[in-house]
Structures are given as C-alpha cells and as structure tokens.
Amino acid sequence: MSGTGDDTGVTDDDNEETGAETETTATSGGDPDTDAKPHSIQREILEQALGEYDFQIFKALNEDGRVSDTELAERIDLSRSALRRRRENLLERDIIDVHAVLVLQELDMAYADALVTLDSSASSDERANLISKLIDEELIYSLDSCLGEYDLYVRLWHRSLGDVKSYTWELFEGEEIVDSYQIVPMVHTWKAWDKELDRPE
Fold this sequence. Notes:
By secondary structure, the protein is an alpha+beta fold. The chain folds into 2 domains: 12-92, no CATH class; 104-192, Alpha-Beta Plaits (2-Layer Sandwich). 41% of the residues lie in helices and 17% in strands. It contains 8 helices and 6 strands; from the N terminus they run H-H-H-H-H-H-E-H-E-E-H-E-E-E. It has helices spanning 19-28, 32-36, 41-50, 52-63, 69-76, 80-92, 124-135, 161-172, and strands at 110-118, 140-145, 152-158, 178-185, 191-192, 195-196. It has a 4-stranded antiparallel β-sheet. Strands 5-6 form a two-stranded antiparallel sheet. Helix 4 (52-63) packs across helix 6. The radius of gyration is 22 Å and the shape is elongated.
C-alpha cells in the first residue's frame, strides 16, 4: 500500500525513497518488510488508512517518540526531508501526537474507571458543560463518550484508592445531570497507547 496520494496530503514528489529501497524492491518484486513479517490486522487496517510509509512512521514513534528524523528516515528508506514532511503532516492533521504520558502503576498511584450515566432529559448544552469541566480536571487521565448503558467513561487517578473515591464523589455528587456512576478500581495495566507495559510471567 503506497503512502502517496491526496488522502495523505503528501505528494508523489515527497516520496523520495533511497536507492537502497529501490534496488531491493526491484530485485525481490515486492515489499521486503511486508514479506518478512507475519500477517498483522493492525498493519492491514492502518496501511489502508495511512499508507505504508506513514504507518511505519507511526509504529517507530510509538516505540520511541525521541527517535531522530535521520535514524527514522534510514530505517524506513526515505530521505530525511521526505520523512520530516510526512511526520509533520501526521502531526498537523492530529493523526498522531507525540507527548509524555504517566505510567501510573509505576508511580504506585491508584487509578480507576468511573462509568457515568447521565439524565436522559439533560440538554446538549448541559452535557457539553459537564464534559468541558471534566476535560479541565488535572487528575482525569482519559474521558470518552459511550454508547449503551453508560454515557461517559472516565479514567481518573490519585494518591490512594480512598482519594480516588473521594475525588470521584466530589466530581459527580453535585452534578444535577449525573444520574448515577460506578467506580471500577484498576489493579494493573498490561497494554496502553498501543504499547505493551507488562506481561504475565
């Protein structure tokens, strides 16, 4: 799957593959990187959505967000200028984001998911105001709207489980449009942000 085309916002001129890749492709008659790897459903889906090169950029940055343009360009057989244009295009389109994240379990912090049900009669403005308030909360790690039994899926953290429960109570008890909420304490995270954090021994 090519990374070129209007869907990526990067033109054919930006695909400045190095001579090494061109020679290898011509000799093998295919993509050596794809041929050497077992089937990956993630790769299949994202290469279709992003293109081959942008998928490889995502995977490399996901493994190490500090990797240099020079090293990454060599790894996926693009010129450094073409690599930089592709990476900046992905960032500008908000498809990827490179930032520091807290691995809460490594800090011995308590964290939990709050499953929140809102009053069905709440207006769109009331829902938007609550969501905006939660976005601004420093100890909320992630916030999602859901379909089904719950309306909001909130991951939050604090020093201890008792603090998590108190914090959750402070967030939702005074909110008229919150019909109910359930706290589900987390004990361990094995995988997050498409990264393996731990594995059972």
